[in-house]
Write a structure and sequence with these properties.
By secondary structure, the chain is mainly alpha-helical. The chain has helices at 2-15, 18-34, 39-56, 60-73, 78-90, 95-101, 105-114, 118-127, 132-139, 142-180. The longest helix has 39 residues, at 142-180.
């Protein structure tokens, strides 16, 4: 409940509305179910990439797709590491993209010279063999299926504990003024 609340707050700030944030979270939930990445990591990555999407005009879903493929190519860095590298790349810093995900120097040079778009990066990754098939293949492994199972259990647990979570927040709101005084 807490991680969902954190991601929702960030997405509302970047999208400007609760409805838009809910749409993004629905997209994230669907992507998490189809990939080897858990919802919490996917939601955190989406929240991190929302600013890039807003400032560049690139689709958030497209950015997440690239992050998924990068993370699948180097699982040690994870989805959040991939999102971080993309945020840096879209601000002109390609060190993480090159060092963490072994993107060749000649590709980095071409991206620097001509700018970077999701479509161009997508095509370059595909040419390197870093495709959606890699992500789908990992989703079909036992680890990928465990990720989907964990998301289902977390969602169920979140639904069951939501009243307790809300009550806890109310208690904190009431206690804080007492502590402050």
């Amino acid at each position: 409940n807490n991680s969902l609340e954190q991601a929702t707050a960030k997405l509302i700030a970047f999208t400007g509305s609760s409805a838009a944030a809910a749409d993004v979270l629905a997209m994230v939930k669907a992507r998490a179910a189809a990939t080897p990445f858990e919802f919490d990591e996917m939601a955190s990555s989406a929240a991190g990439l929302a600013a890039v999407s807003k400032t560049t005009g690139e689709s958030l879903e497209g950015l997440l797709g690239i992050a998924e493929r990068l993370a699948a190519s180097n699982p040690a860095e994870g989805l959040e590491g991939a999102a971080f590298a993309l945020r840096e790349a879209f601000s002109g810093d390609f060190v993480s993209l090159q060092d963490r995900f072994n993107i060749p120097k000649d590709l980095i040079k071409r991206i620097k010279e001509g700018g970077i778009t999701v479509a161009e990066l997508d095509a370059e990754l595909a040419a390197m063999g870093i495709t959606t098939d890699l992500v789908s293949g990992l989703a079909a492994t036992a680890t990928g299926r465990i990720s989907t199972f964990n998301d289902s259990v977390s969602e169920l647990a979140g639904s069951l504990t939501e009243p307790v979570f809300e009550a806890f927040k109310t208690v904190l709101e009431r206690i804080q003024p007492i502590i402050d005084s």
